[in-house]
Amino acid sequence: MTLIKLGGSVVTFKEKPLAANFEAINNILRALTHLKMPIIVVHGGGSFGHYWSVKYNMHTKPASYDLHGISVVHESMIALNQIIVNCMVKLGMNPYATMPSIFTLGHKPIAKKIKELQTIAESGLIPTTFGDVVHIENRKYSILSGDAIMSILAKVLRPSKVVFTFNVDGIYKDMKKGEIIKEVNNNNKKSLEFPKVVADVTGGMQRKVTEALKISGTGIDVLIISAITGSSFEGTIVKGRRNRQ
Which of 9, 13, 203, 241 could form a disulfide with 19 if both were Cys (CB 3.0 to 4.6 A apart)? Predict the structure, then answer.
């Protein structure tokens, strides 16, 4: 099982509201067609969900947000998911669009439903889900980021591969020099530098690394790579605590 996150900064143009990056989407999807194992795809909001989340001042903290804003954010994520799923279909892939509310209760996993996603993936379909606004309790809602969903799925499914794609080459040791850290573990995480992402209500690269460290704590290696360059591998490996090869 491979679990793959398509960063919102990759699948959209973050500086352009509601603008999908079709070239990047199709390039990534073509690469995924070469994988010979079951996969689950998660994508971020980019200039769709994040754009409206900022407009309506919505965050990951549960609160009684504007009801119209909740509808707009949710529908924008469905629209982006439809774009990605349609691209998959055109490439001959077999996506299976899935809202996160199907396999989560607020921010908590529903293990039975998540394992059902694995069964679906093993049948040859590709569950394709996304960060979204979800109901918590007592009419309070919250943004559940695609990065958090990666942790939720990884904890239950224990995939052999976990990949985060982003619009930079990895995690920086020194951003001014462009120096990439090849490997991260819990011992060197405090020295990391994070690229700043404009209008990212879900935490940008720092949130990705936080979630990647959670996943690596279960013994799974996590790759953080650029999905833009398309050249030989350049990125950061967040090592699993048991240092699996």
Answer: 13
